[in-house]
Amino acid sequence: MTHLAYSEPAPRIFHGAKGDWEVVIGMEVHAQVASRSKLFSGAATAFGAEPNTQVSLLDAAMPGMLPVLNGFCVEQAVRTGLGLKARINLFSQFDRKNYFYPDLPQGYQISQLYHPLVGEGEVIVDLGPGVARRVRIERIHLEQDAGKSIHDMDPDLSFVDLNRTGVALMEIVSRPDLRSPEEAGEYVRKLRQILRYLGTCDGNMQEGSLRADVNVSVRPAGSDRFGTRCEIKNLNSIRFIQQAIEHEARRQIAILEDGGQVVQETRLFDPGRGETRSMRSKEEAQDYRYFPDPDLLPLQLTEDYVARIRASLPELPDEKKARFVREYGVTEYDASVLTAEVEAADFFEAVARGRDGKQAANWVINELFGRLNKEGLEITQSPVSAGQLGGILDLIARGDISGKIAKELFEIVWTEGGEPEAIVEARGMRQVTDSAAIEQAVDAVLAANPDKVEQAKAKPSMAGWFVGQVMKATGGKANPQAVNALVRARLGLPG
Ligand code: ADP
Ligand code: MG
Question: How remote is the CA of residue 19 from the centroid of ligand 2, in Å?
């Protein structure tokens, strides 16, 4: 079983003034390859460097400089393709996309139009337990990023930072299979998760490592024809993607209900206003005069090369999630939470292996993740290690401590560190299972509350109150099952 069974949801319905509509969305995601050097030059790619300090002569388009393809970037794109269950094209080719812009000194971007490196694949977008949308991937190609124009440093001048020029991007193009802003957001989340599992892109949207162009059209609910689409460029957060789609769908519905027609165009999202506005229409679209780059040979891969990369793929989120449900008996929801990040999944497995999986999941999700969230820490910064948490669970399993004491113990390990078992020993936290001690505590509570004893004989549900009192009297250290059994026996209630 590679992934859990799911069914696809109905499209979300948008209620217009005159009728019902649905939205159709296709995405072009630009993912920066996690490579220390650029696609065709040896210049560095580190984020946040001083402007124009990571620019080779090639990036600056000095005459006579020739591109040299970075094999590591090719490998990452192939890895990504395989991770998206896609066909790898053994023959691919780089084309020049010609246009003028100050942040593009070459006067063209090297991309792959006619023969992309990766063909058709898929992403299963999780939308809740048992519900998912299968989104087909049309292609993935490698291309160069452009530089950055800076307009806000001087009232009269614009500046150009070429550090980003030539950095390797994977453009991941989906088919128009998404049917709501929420699905689009989840699609980006899932794609980002897979890329991070593969290690081919760090997925950092704030730093621009992952950006999306979103294509949106609308059609009457139930129609099987596509409407005219608009493309919203360069969205760098999931919230903006969702807001832009929501606004764009409503804008198009209003035009159509008014008897007008949607004009195919490129639009920009203004986060301040939550609106999209026109950037250029199809009529103004430039002719990029694409042609194969004469400085680069076609890229020819062998079956063997692809097979070697395939063999090195890690277990991916869908498979890991299905395995967690199967091997550890956790719910699909919990498995999603546990597999969101590979480091967290590894942590969970280190705790759960050889122990009660459901209990391990509860502790990792509720106690550990809850606490990490509160403190704003990543799993890799957790003060409690998997070994320590496992130690706490072993103490519970052996009946040495109750669940309540375990939480106190967790707190001690979190703040002070140390071996759980040694702490329990040193601080006398061990649960009282010794029946003489428990008997004594139970009898003391019964003797102190004769009126309640009378009531409980008529109303058995009151037994719980006595158990609570005994637990309190023993500082939570009495074994709750033993206390419960004894209380019921003393009250003459059935066990
Ligand atoms: P182009 O070659 O003009 O870029 P493509 O056919 O490659 O156009 O599509 C680009 C993106 O637009 C793809 O992600 C695709 O899924 C999406 N798309 C195509 N048609 C529609 C449509 N009618 N509504 C929404 N998205 C669409
Ligand atoms: Mg396109």
Answer: 31
Collapsing DSSP states into helix, strand and coil, what is residue 308? helix
Structure-token pair, residue 369: 């993740």
Determine phi and psi for 343, rounding to 5 degrees. Answer: -65, -40
Q: What is the mean pLDDT of residues 63-81?
A: 97
Which bound ligand lies closest to the C-alpha atom of 111?
A: 2
Terminal CA-CA length for the chain: 44
Q: Which protein residue has the closest C-alpha to ligand 1 atom 17?
A: 26
Domain boundaries, the chain: 13-310, 315-426, 435-491
263-318 pLDDT per residue, tens: 999 999 999 999 999 988 776 667 899 999 999 999 999 999 999 999 999 999 99
Verify whether ligand 1 is closer than 6 Å to residue 137 (CB atom): no
Q: Which ligand is nearest to the CA of 172?
A: 1
Atom of ligand 1 nearest to the CA of 27: 14
Q: What is the pLDDT of residue 393?
A: 98
SS3 category, 87: coil
Q: Determine which residue's CA is closest to atom 19 belonging to ligand 1.
A: 176
- Domain range 435-491, CATH architecture: Orthogonal Bundle (1.10)
- Beta strand 299-300 with 148-150: parallel, antiparallel or unpaired? unpaired
For residue 245, the SS3 value is: helix
Alpha carbon distance 372, 481 (integer Å): 31
> Tokens for 29?
């995601």
